[in-house]
Design brief:
There is one protein chain. This protein is mainly alpha-helical and 71 residues long. Helices cover 70% and strands 0% of the residues. It has helices at 2-12, 17-24, 29-36, 44-53, 58-70.
Length: 71
């Protein structure tokens, strides 16, 4: 799920939620927590910033979901 991949990517980047929020610029650590808990989903502009800041791609976030359908 997106929430799990977001946390994984953030931890691989050695960032805590507050640091990620600061790098994104217009969200709080509570917002990041909400994304990681699956309570909300980022808007498109924030989503692209997440990809950029965490040096990842949309493919990384959908990989587990996509693989379920290709097995």
């Amino acid at each position: 799920a997106f929430k799990d991949r977001l946390k994984e990517a953030r931890e691989q980047a050695v960032l805590n939620q507050t640091e990620l929020a600061e790098l994104l610029g217009n969200v709080t650590n509570k917002t990041i927590s909400s994304y990681e808990n699956g309570n909300s989903f980022p808007k498109t502009d924030i989503l692209y910033k997440i990809f950029d800041v965490l040096h990842t791609t949309p493919k990384f976030f959908c990989f587990q979901v996509c693989c379920k359908y290709t097995k």
